[in-house]
Please model this.
Amino acid sequence: MTGYLKGSATAMVTPFTEDGIDLESFGEMIDFQLENGTDALVVLGTTGEPSTMDEDEKDALVRFAVRRTERRAKVIVGVGHNCTSAAAAAAHRAKVLGADGVLAVTPYYNRCTQRGILSYYHEICKEGLPVIAYNVPSRTGVNILPETAEKLAAIDLIAGIKEASGDMLQVLDTARRIRGKCDLYSGEDYLILPTLCAGGSAVISVVGNLVPRAVKELTQAALGHDLDRANALADALFPLVQACHLEVNPIPVKEAMNLMGMRAGIPRPPLTRLEPEHRALLLAAMQSYGIVR
Model:
């Protein structure tokens, strides 16, 4: 399946308070993304901390996102799990709630075989929504090998592979194997430009929570083959991306959003607030980029 997503998507944070989810702030974040041209919102991805949420909270967040977005952008829901039936059930709920597609990280912790990965995605696709397979072995302990990606691309509802392995050799091998069968998405802000130049069609971005217009413009420049502009945009963005990875995502980006006045709230345990020395570095990068004083 090709052509499902082209452009920029933002991996949305979930604004938590001591009492639950701050839907008012989440709505403001959605509006900010739409006003700045974001093509898709990824809800309940890694950045949204879904592993700390119960099912009622997840359903409420997805329902709210679908209503607030009003089809002005795609709403893609994270459904990955280390239990195949649970992932399929989450995909079914996403469909009922009106999502446009799902993002399914590989089964984590279990460390299944490549055959297990294929079976996992086959089951999720049975729920009838476009599926983005998400490869982030640093978190899951499982890597979608390029030859497995090629087999996944043959499944009708596999819309793309979100590559966050950090290995450009693997990205290039995956790109050549799936080209014309399903799409390739950048899952790492560091590698937006090279992934798009290798034939990627979209980015699913963390830093897009802060600067969605800049990510959109970088994506457009790369897809439009304006490499001078794309390089200039990527160069300017790089220090901010570095700052957003001073600690594990989404700790820094949440702090950055709070510094911008967006009320992203606090990470849920076991994640903690950004360390003071890292906060100073983050603030300096944001000031240098011009998004805070």
